[in-house]
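re the bet — no i am not wrong, look at it urself. input seq straight from the record:
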Amino acid sequence: MGIFLYNIFLWLFRAGTHVASLFNEKAKKWVNGRKNIFKNLKATIPSGEKIIWMHCASLGEFEQGRPVIERLKINYPDYKILLTFFSPSGYEVQKNYKNADWVFYLPIDGASNAKRFLEIVQPSLVIFVKYEFWYYYLKKIKYREIPLILISALFRQDMSFFKWYGAMQRKILSRFNYLFVQNAESKKLIDNIGLSTICTIAGDTRFDRVIEIAASSKSLPLIEKFIAGKKVLIAGSTWKNDEELLQQISDFLSFNNIQLIIAPHEINKDHIEEIQKLFPGSLLYSSLSSSPQEINADVLIIDNIGMLSTLYKYAWCSYIGGGLNRTGVHNVVEAAVYHKPVFFGPNYEKYREAAELVAIKGAFAINDKDELIAQLNQFILNTSYYNESGEKAGTYVTNNGGAVEIILNYIQENRLLTN
């Protein structure tokens, strides 16, 4: 894509988002969050501060950047952290993130916007996470000779960087000082376009994050009260079709005395009510009381955000949503870290960790209720098989930790920041 086409794309995207904001809540937040953005940046960020700027597309990328931010805060306490998001789904959830000094939307890419943004922020180090490649921002960062790294990057052969028409995209990659990629396939692709000297395999920083969460997870008394010592299938980040699938196995779960906890991806009122209709007699987490009375329900719906990664530790098995959609499965490692088997739908192959877990039988892709019931039944009948699968899942996560240390070592050894 040449710069002319890129500019047309930016114009169409901005215009389309403004139109969509008239009837779409997410688009409305995207637009409103950028109103007076430069005025707000200038009023909020004092001049002369030493700043590390990290940019994430959305919530998933934030979870990859988060462990790096937390280590930077410890190792470089004199530096402030500016965290930016492209998507409302990241910003709205993490706008009060305690380890960032400032959290903003990223102004849409453009020569003028990138110039103004960098003049206000004047970062000492810029960290982009995984997939964000904004032409003008990266060009201006390079021009100003600001150290720029990409972390938890994942590349595939079908990306434009590796096509005959991808000269502009390859130019974008060359503007990074260093690329920390997740796997050998990504490294090989980068090597093949002549960037081998600025690329290394570090792994996915999400593994470090989930390992840390699992090690420091706290008890959830109301969850323990609901489970009451029974087996529980915990379904996280579910969508409508995931919930319909779970409803189809509800008789099987009841017959085998297995509880069900559903933590949907969207917790708006309409979606929660749809789930309640699918599961008559289900309870909302917000309605649970700490009183000692017995809970007479088999299905619990989590109607809040923020507890899922800890919730998974109570699972007998976990089901991760998204795999029945075109967008693909959500975060599987935050469940696998607890050494329990994981299930998800068939759309997972773009997600390295999901594919690798399936390959070692720590996770299982299912297409319908019959496949899910058959696999759950095997675990019920064969405890050693269940234990072996869970152990494979947990060990896989543990063995993939260490990316944060590699990134921090690079920053220190190359003196990108000074204490």
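see?? The domain at 19-203+402-413 is CATH 3.40.50.11720 (Rossmann fold). told u. also The chain has 20 helices and 14 strands. so pay up
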